Amino acid sequence: MALVNLVKLNIHATGEGNAKKPEVQAAAKARWGQGLAEDATDAAPGRRIYAGHGHTLARQIRLGVVPPDTKLTARPEQIPAWDALSADQKRLYARMMEVYAGALSHADYNIGRLLDAVEQSGQMDNTLVIFMMGDNGASAEGTQQGTTNEVATAANGVTESLPFLLSMIDELGGPLTYNHYPVGWAHAMDTPMQWTKQIASHLGGTRNGMVISWAARIKDKGGLRTQFCHVIDIVPTIYEAAGITPPDMLDGVKQKPLDGTSLVYTF
What we know:
The chain is α+β, with helices and mostly antiparallel strands. The chain is built from eight helices and seven strands; from the N terminus they run E-E-E-H-H-H-E-H-H-H-H-E-H-E-E.
């Protein structure tokens, strides 16, 4: 069984019949739009869409991923409204989000390449694909105005003026920046949940979507599941799907029982 888990890149054989049972773990980088190739940063040229709560929620309701009576959470007063921004701020913030959109497109394209390779190997039907959108909600670490260097501003107290940020607009996503979008985008991307990463008390900070595909076992393509699951459920799911019983002892060390519940029952 091949596994695609967006955590790290590590390809090796597992279990008996190693040549027939590759395990594939692949990392796709879309972290705030940093370190992208030029073609990726230009993936959304001219796009000036402010992903407001209303548009996003309407799509979520149409797709059935949230209940039809879901209501928007209010924008925290600490986050400026889009209409309150100056023309320069809108131009800068839009470009920051374009770069992030380019990062997502770049990741999506390369995930597709990986899955194409699995398909070409003839193993797609026997492949369990677990796609988790992230490890937390959209990040608010870019501050209200975004940054060209998240480590400098968030970790080392460096300040950046709006004129400086505007002067760097064409460098965003390139090797001279470690950029991050403004917090307003994080709030919009966490729709319909409240708040963002760093605020662990609300689901906007902690909840992510997940997709599981396994053609040989899951037959309702595009089906939805409403069970609440946790990241601790992933390892038990893989063990059960692969028919593996985790050892009680490993290298002479007694192992703790696994937390979490296998999600195979939802398949």
